Amino acid sequence: MTVFVTGATGFVGANLVRELLKDGAAVRALVRPGTPRTTIEGLDVEAVPGDLQDRDSLRHALRGCQVLYHVAARYSLSSKDATEMHRSNVEGTRNILEVAREVAVERVVYTSTVGALGIPKNGLSGTEDTPVTLAEMVGPYKQSKFLAEREAERIGNQGLPVVIVNPSAPVGPWDVKPTPTGRMIVDYLKRQMFGYIHTGLNLVHVRDVARGHILAAQKGRVGEKYILGNQNLTLREIFTLLEQISGVTAPRWRIPYPVAFVAACASELSARLSRQEARVPLTGVRMARKIMFFDPSKAIRELQLPQTPVQEALREAVEWYWAHEYAPRKAET
Question: DSSP letters of 186-197?
Answer without folding.
Answer: HHHHTT----B-
